[in-house]
Amino acid sequence: MAHTFLLEIGLEEMPAHVVTPAIKQLVKRTADYLKEQRVAYDDIKPFSTPRRLALLISGLADKQDDISESVKGPAKKIAQDADGNWSKAAIGFTRGQGLTPDDITFKEIKGTEYVYVDKFIAGEPVAAVLAGLKDVITAMTFPTMMKWGDHHFEYIRPIRWLVALLDADVIPFSILDVTTDRNTRGHRFLGKDIELKQAGDYEADLTSQFVIADADKRKALIKTQIDKIATDNQWTVNVDAGLLEEVNNLVEWPTAFAGSFDEKYLTIPEEVLITSMRDHQRFFYARDASGKLLPNFISVRNGNDHDLQNVVAGNEKVLTARLEDAMFFYTEDQNKTIADYVERLKSVSFHDKISTMAEKMARVTAIVGVLAKHFDLNDAQTKAALRASEIYKFDLVTGMVGEFAELQGVMGEKYALLEGEDPAVAQAIREHYEPISADGALPASVPGAVLALADKLDSILTFFAAGMIPSGSNDPYALRRQATGIVRIARDQQWSLPVADLARDAIAAETAANVAPDLDQTAQVEALVNFVKDRIRKILRSSKQRHDIIAAVTEGSSSDVLQIFTAANILASHADDANFKDVIESLTRVIRLAQKAPAELATAKVNPDLFNNDSEGALDQGVAKVAAAADQGLDALYASLADIQPTIAAYFDATMVMDKDEAVKNNRLTELSHLAQLALTLGDLDQLVVK
């Protein structure tokens, strides 16, 4: 007989951003537990609101699956002595299986006899297994945890009730002083407590008490209500998915409503208005048919439409207070110039172990100069990037950003335009923060991309030099995100970005401009390269690249971000070629022999007079062709390396590299070293798995 089981964890209101990950975690942990316990089921349906995490498991088996298996133990010669007595190994083996030596039989495998026991374990009733869900609940983890009462136990919020119903029967267990029963709770203000007769009544009974427990149904209802208000008022409302998810996790019985604010506030930049509505108040903003922002908003109440006008008035009052502050700061900020704000940055700390914010900008200006030259920017792009680097943090000390921290960069762009700065400069100021998340938008302009790279390179280098290198999950200054940004920007712009060389050039430029910090940045260049390569590995793994190709391209000598990605694509595109195995094996043999050569041979010249057979001359000509192809890019390089594979094979068939004659040997190692250096441009090919 199939059963239905309900598990509900009743809590104080959880933060909205925790609800969805928490219910997903509970589903996974429960599914893993049932699999581990050999309990079959058809489906797990999740329910979640700010006050509850619940699962309805349908098609649950009566009991665990029985275990009937033959278990292999030690060899007979180990299990028994010469007199046939059982050894400690045999006794220990059977004890571990819950049996005795009397249960032992022997089976022969490839001429050797082994101990076997037939093991049968009857499955426990499902009710006994479900009581173990207590441990599933208490094992859950959350971004922040709290204690309550005199308990040492930590959870996202205090547990107030527990429901565990197998059909109509309570599965008993307790967490702290809360014991499972059949009683759940309706809406905090509109509903009342409910005694569930059976598990399957859960969703309908809660609905009768003003709780829509199904998060997907609740979200769909909110969307429908917003769309209706927008249609009735001829508004265009962008129902942001993230905001909808957050609002959905704040309510149990949603009722959407519209509100308004004074049109005078529309003189404030719309980013400020949207931030006030969306981020601070969780309102959806409205536009007219032409896309113009309207003095209206839509919000969602956790309740019905009773006295809704009072709720509307209250929300309008709160928003107006925010907008009044914004208008004040917007007006006041314009009483000072950008130069005034830049001067104030001299007393603002970037980090007390590194420098002031003004000193950081000076370093970034030096780095921008290096990057502009490396990327061969035109005069207009270089001028815009350099000017932006001199002022790009000024908005941090404005009143608006002090009140609305989310608008840093955005207000920098607005104020720069108001003061007559080049639009390219203003855009770069906003874009230098990008990407603001691992997969966030990237700078669209060249000056913005250069400034973003320079700012991120400086941050990572200086924090590393100050001894603040991320470890484990600890990354308080978001340096991993900044490294990911460097990688993504270089790839997006298709810029060659040799991290090691550019970092050294940047440090030299800072020193020449007398703006270098009192820190040893040079000692951190290798760590910077490894840090950036870690981000490249993560991106390649997320794109389902082969693990051996990832290892090859990231463990090679190159620190050029774009070159590493290009090499990965090339190796992946040729991995199924008929000659791929032969090409890689030939090149790895070259590389391994070249590693035995003294370092000075890498730059020595090959002497044709020391050739003893035709294959040496053929290889020398082949290496010259590969070197010429390398100037045309990695695709041409790989094609050329593949073309000379037969030449390499013929060379090894005819030539003993480690000749007794020292001059001949070194000449051959020189030739191989030149070829190895070209091959290593693609990466550490020895990491590749070829079949």
Features:
alpha+beta, 691 residues, five-stranded antiparallel sheet, protein biosynthesis, four-stranded antiparallel sheet, 27 helices, flat
Describe the structure.
Its EC number is 6.1.1.14. By secondary structure, the protein is α+β, with helices and mostly antiparallel strands. Helices cover 49% and strands 14% of the residues. The protein is built from 27 helices and 18 strands. A hairpin with a 5-residue loop joins strand 15 and strand 16. Helix 16 crosses helix 17, helix 19 (499-512) runs antiparallel to helix 20 (525-542) and helix 24 (614-630) packs parallel to helix 27 (662-679).
Largest sheet, strands/sense/barrel: 5 strands, antiparallel
Strand content: 5-15%
- How much is the radius of gyration in Å? 34 Å
Q: How would you describe the shape?
A: flat
Spatial arrangement of strands, main beta sheet:
2-3-1-7-8
Q: What is the straight-line distance between the termini?
A: 52 Å
Taking all residues together, what is the mean pLDDT? Answer: 94
Structural class computed from helices and strand pairing: alpha+beta
What is the topological layout?
Blueprint: E1 3-11, H1 16-36, E2 43-49, E3 52-60, E4 67-75, H2 76-79, H3 88-96, E5 104-109, E6 112-121, H4 126-130, H5 133-138, E7 159-166, E8 169-170, E9 174-175, E10 178-179, E11 183-185, E12 193-195, H6 202-208, H7 215-233, E13 236-237, H8 241-248, E14 254-260, H9 270-280, E15 284-287, E16 293-302, H10 308-333, H11 338-344, E17 349-351, E18 355-356, H12 357-374, H13 379-391, H14 399-403, H15 410-418, H16 423-431, H17 446-465, H18 479-493, H19 499-512, H20 525-542, H21 547-554, H22 561-574, H23 580-594, H24 614-630, H25 634-643, H26 645-654, H27 662-679
Helix pairs in contact: 9-10, 12-13, 12-17, 12-19, 13-16, 13-17, 15-16, 16-17, 17-18, 18-20, 19-20, 20-21, 20-22, 21-22, 23-27, 24-25, 24-26, 24-27
